[in-house]
Amino acid sequence: MLSGVVGGVAGQLVEDRINTGLSTLPEPGPGATARPPGSVANIAAAALPSVVTIKVDGGSEGSATGSGFVIDKKGHVLTNNHVVAAAPDGDIEVVLSNGDAQKATIVGRDTSYDLAVLRIARTDLTPLRLGPSSKVVVGDQVIAVGAPLGLDQTVTTGIVSALNRPVSAGEGTESSFINAIQTDTANNPGNSGGPLLDMSGEVIGINSAIARVPGTSGSTGGSIGLGFAIPSDQARRTADQLIATGKATHPIIGVSLDRTFSGDGAQVSDQPGAVTAGGPAAKAGVKAGDIVVGFEGKRIRTPDQLIVSIRARAVGDTVKLEVKRGGQQIELTMTLEADPGK
């Protein structure tokens, strides 16, 4: 059972640290100098001043606590959309590592990628660097930082357990699709939006979802060693778009998938209009009833796997699909286009 909400818990544990007086500059902890470069203590001490706790008061929509981190010198903070979804017009407060509290506004947010960019009135904070998630390999050591259960500035460690895990959460228009990095770091409700760091201190993912034991939900389920993070390459592209325009573009191929198909692959629906006229798939020769079994050389087993593989790319990318049709396997090439409905 997957949960796309590792945030969303009450923030009473953060209250003791909030400083509403004069703004001060968060400083690295003693581990920045007392421990060797490249050690967990050294990396965590240097990163903590850039990691924030996000408190959301959505009024009748409820309250929540999540995590985030500074991404530039203009006051922009990156987090998960589901952390702030309860308060699109409500009250959002960002708490720095030294207890300073800042009111925040939403610059842009995107449900499908589960990302949001906030802005606070601080230009003196040190941003974390977004590293290349494309270079991550299974077995890499990683560090997760956030505010699980409201316990701000919590650091946990682990390894990359798998790559390209198709993770979907939410329903209908609130669905999100993540081509996730899987880790065994201890993530719990409240970790959402916090950085996943590599051993050079760069962000290679945004902690976003955890698997839960069946029968548990909300704050009743904790870490079982299955955490999922949005790759930094996707986060960087989406954050840049949200800052520039307030919204993100979604690449599509222009087909509707048959969710009742139980075979191996992702089957294009055989209903009228399943292949959008003039869309990338139609131009490439995809037909209703085709079964997509490969995307860019990787095997496709489920509809969600195809969706997250497409969403992990950029509008304008040229991709290759392997489709089965009438006992034959065909390779088709197409250029991804922006979803006109977004």
- Backbone shape: globular
On the 0 to 100 scale, the average pLDDT is 87
Strand order of the largest sheet: 8-9-10-13-12-11
Determine the number of helices (DSSP H or I, runs of at least 4 residues): 6
Strand elements, count: 20
CATH architecture of the largest domain: Beta Barrel
Low-confidence stretches: 8-14
Structural class: mainly beta
Key phrases:
single chain, about 350 residues, mainly beta, 2 domains, six-stranded antiparallel barrel, 6 helices
Topology:
Layout: E1 2-3, H1 31-34, H2 40-47, E2 51-57, E3 63-70, E4 76-79, H3 81-84, E5 91-95, E6 101-110, E7 115-120, E8 141-146, E9 154-169, E10 176-183, E11 195-197, E12 203-211, E13 227-231, H4 232-245, E14 251-252, E15 266-267, H5 280-284, E16 291-295, E17 298-299, H6 303-311, E18 318-325, E19 328-335, E20 337-338
Antiparallel strand pairs: 1-12, 2-3, 2-5, 3-4, 4-7, 5-6, 6-7, 8-9, 8-11, 9-10, 10-13, 11-12, 12-13, 14-20, 15-16, 16-17, 16-18, 18-19
Protein architecture, described:
The chain has 342 residues and is mainly β. It contains 6 helices and 20 strands. The protein has helices spanning 31-34, 40-47, 81-84, 232-245, 280-284, 303-311; strands at 2-3, 51-57, 63-70, 76-79, 91-95, 101-110, 115-120, 141-146, 154-169, 176-183, 195-197, 203-211, 227-231, 251-252, 266-267, 291-295, 298-299, 318-325, 328-335, 337-338. The strands form 4 sheets. A 6-stranded antiparallel β-barrel has the order 8-9-10-13-12-11. A 6-stranded antiparallel barrel has the order 2-3-4-7-6-5. Strands 15, 16, 17, 18 and 19 form a 5-stranded antiparallel beta sheet that branches. It is globular, with a radius of gyration of 21 Å. The relative contact order is 0.14.
